[in-house]
Each structure stands twice: as C-alpha cells, then as structure tokens.
Amino acid sequence: MNTFRFECKKLRKKKTTWLAFFITLIGIIGFYLFHLSVAEKVHQKNIARLDYLFQMYASGAEEYALEMKKAEEAGDTEIAEEMHNLMEIYQKASEYVKQEKEYFANEDWTHLIDRHIRSLEPFVEDYDTLGYHIEETQISLFTLRATLEEKQRLQKYDIVPFIQSTTYPNDTFLPTIYDDFSGNALEEWEKMTERYGRFGFYFLYQLIQLFFLPIIVLIGVFLFGNGISSEAGKKKKGLHFYATLPFSKGRLFFAKYASGLLYTLGFTFMMLLTPIVTSLFFKGVGSLKYPVLVYDGSEPNPYGSQYNALDPKNDTFHFIELQDYFLKILFFSIILVIFLYSCYFLLSLFIKNPGINIILLGSMTFVGMKFFPKAYNPFTYMDVHKNITREIATIQFNPAIEYQTGMILMFVISLIITFISYRLFTHRMRLS
C-alpha cells in the first residue's frame, strides 16, 4: 500500500501532467461555451425568420385590403371578392406566424411540440399518399415514425427539445440511418436535422456521439500510463531506486499499474462531468428523461448477405431515457479505461517512447473500429453511442453486436493483457 501511495504521489507531482489536464479541461469548457453561443444564435435566427414572415404576411394583407377597396370603388365585385379572400388568407397566416414567433421567443415548447405532432401525424398515417420529399428524395417512413414518437414523449414529460435551425413544424426531424440522401438533398437534410444542445446533459450526449469518450480515455492513458516506460530509459532512475528495496517485482507492478489506472479513471470521470458542472452556471443541466432512439435491428436475410435490406415500414425501434443511456455510459467508461489502459501499459513495456505508444494505440483503435465491425472485435465497441443505440448492429445485420457483449469482451481481454504484462515485467524486465 505504501508503494501504491508513493506512485500516486509521483503522478501528482508531474507539472506537465497538470498542464495537460487543465488544457483539456479548458478545451471542453470552451467547446461548450462555443456550442451554447451557436445554439443561441440559431434560436434568435429562427425568431428573426418568423418576424420577417409576419411582416411579409401583414404587409401582403394590407396590400390586398387596398386592392379590395379600389375594386369596390370601381364597382368590380368579382375582383373585390378575390382580393378579400386573399386578404383573409394573409391575415390568418400573419396571425399564425405571430403566435409562432411568440412561442419561440418565450420558449413555449409545449405549444410548439403540439403543433409539430399534429403536422406529422397525417404523413405517418397516410405515408403512401402524402410522403415527404427533400428535392426528389423521400424521407423514410421509419424516420417519420421515430420523429413522431420522440415528440410525443417530449410532450408527455414536458421536456425542452434541442434547438434546430428551422421554424417549420414539418421540418424538425429526428435523423435516422434509414435515409439515404445525396447532393443538395443531403446538404438540406443535414441542415434541417442539425441539433444544438444548450443544457449540460444534452451537450454531453452530443459529445459522446463525437467519439468524446475514447478520445478522453486515450488522453488519460497517455498522461498516467507511463509509470514504467518513463523510468526505464537509459538512466532508469526510478526502477534503479526500487532495485535497492526489499520487495518483489509483482508488488511494484501492481503499484504502478493500479496508480496509473486510478488516475486515468479519475481523469475520465472529471472530463465527463465538466460539461454538466459548467452548464450549471449558464442554461442548466436539462432533463434526464429525454428520449434516445434505439434500433431493434433487422435480422440477416437467410438467402445471403447480398439480400440484406432495411425495411423502413416494418423495422421496429424503441426509446430509452437519457438517464438509462448515461448509466450505460458510466459502466462502459470503466471497462473502456481498463481496456485501453491495459493495452497502453503492455505497449510501454516494449516501447519506451509515450508518443509512439499513443500513436500506435490510437491507430489500432481507429482501424479496428472503422474497418472490422465484428461482434468479437473489441474495437467495434469503441463507438459506444452506436452500440447503445444498436446502430452498428442494425447496419451490419449482426444481432450479436451488443453493448453487453462488448463489455464482457473488453473486460476479459483486459485481464489477459494485464496478466501478460505482469509476466513480462516480473520475469523479463530488469530493474537495474
């Protein structure tokens, strides 16, 4: 235990480690503030767009009122009636937009979500007749169904939604993997479905979708996983000191391994908590009941993989709450830290340069995650968001790719790697 405390103390005394820690911390806070400012700008832009539409419709109503008056004075009843009808249409439109603007300005999401639901229901119920197109590409029925249910859940629990860059009820969609746009349609779709989370929980949820977790863990193992490699160079000051003391290599191994692992875990959790704590000083944390889409997946075609195809009409889905999502993230974070830290620790026994080690581990992670999406490849589970939502399993038509499988697989491999590291250190490495 004294050796463990001594190793922890050495980690705390490294000034470069603390500098990297604060740079990472400030970077996350800065990114949240930037994201928040963009979200507020988009929200104000939506209000300004509605104000412009209100002015346009109100001005149009006035012009048609003047035209109607001129027609009445000229005795042209047919034109007067036509202008009267147009005037009423523009008046109703201006009143509708004015109310919509007030809802946005006051952030009255209850009424806005209700309007969104009522506008979506006809498209879902009569999809074959109505449909919904961007350019010439139709939005999938799966996306319409998922969007509708998401909004119904927002309405049920009175949840504030993400900010999206549109004010039209029919355009606030939840993006899914069932849509395949290209060209201008893709650009329009991405613009319509881009979401901005102003609250701490929402922002963290979006960060995790951007590979935040594996990046933070890799930074953590780079900072705290060099307990042996940093002392095994030409001078070997640290290990030479231990060689003069009366205790085993096994004791030294576990002191160095456990101290670095503990600090990496602490670093990871602090970085995960940073957006939430920061948001308390601005917009708040948001609701943990926010719905997260989970794909139920499609079974592989029995006639061969070439016949695999997603079925937007019949494929099912369900939602979990953000609190359940974060609970899975918490458990996965622990296993991910142990796995990547164990891999890095093993590399450090062979290569004494921390920079080379982190490049190798980062490359292994990227290649394994990107090009080998198999159920028993531990790097398949690096994108924890797509595994919790079963996006990878659905796209690959492989039900075996599951969150639980990834947790067990990475933990077992971590134990094996740690045992190999222990054997190498205690039987092959020299301390002096």
Automatic annotation (TrEMBL):
Q: Which residues cross the membrane?
A: 16-34, 202-225, 261-282, 325-347, 354-372, 407-425
Keywords on record = Membrane, Transmembrane, Transmembrane helix
Please verify whether the record's keywords include Membrane: yes
Domain of life, per UniProt, equals: Bacteria
Tell me if Hydrolase is a UniProt keyword of this record.
no
Q: What is the name of the protein in this document? A: ABC transporter permease
Provide the species name.
Answer: Fervidibacillus albus
